[in-house]
Design brief:
By secondary structure, this protein is mostly helical. The protein is built from five helices and two strands. Helix 1 packs parallel to helix 3.
Length: 99
């Protein structure tokens, strides 16, 4: 990802990855979380967009939240985890900068 990492940017990147790999939305079963409500909370725009898309695709299952430690080690997806961790750190760093 380049530039901003807003909820919409993250959703578009996820959607693009699914489209490029041909992976159907029915296969999306979990989400990595560090517990940040801004990214994964009930009021998160990102989660709302994902839920809306899953509803449009007739996916009835709710996403399971995986803590970042479990996700990285059990799924052996360090390359993905690294990108997600960088995005989260960038968001946090921008959030607390002085104007």
């Amino acid at each position: 990802m380049q530039g901003t990492t807003t909820d919409t940017d993250l959703y578009e990147e996820m959607s693009s990855c699914l489209n490029q790999t041909g992976l159907p939305w029915q296969k999306v079963v979990g989400r990595k979380t560090d517990g940040a409500p801004a990214i994964c909370g009930q009021r998160s725009v990102l989660m709302a967009k994902i839920r809306q898309k899953m509803h449009e695709e007739n996916v009835t299952d709710e996403l399971t939240a995986y803590p970042c430690v479990v996700c990285g080690k059990a799924l052996k997806m360090e390359h993905v985890m690294g990108t997600i961790t960088q995005a989260v750190k960038f968001i946090y760093s921008q959030r607390f900068k002085s104007p």
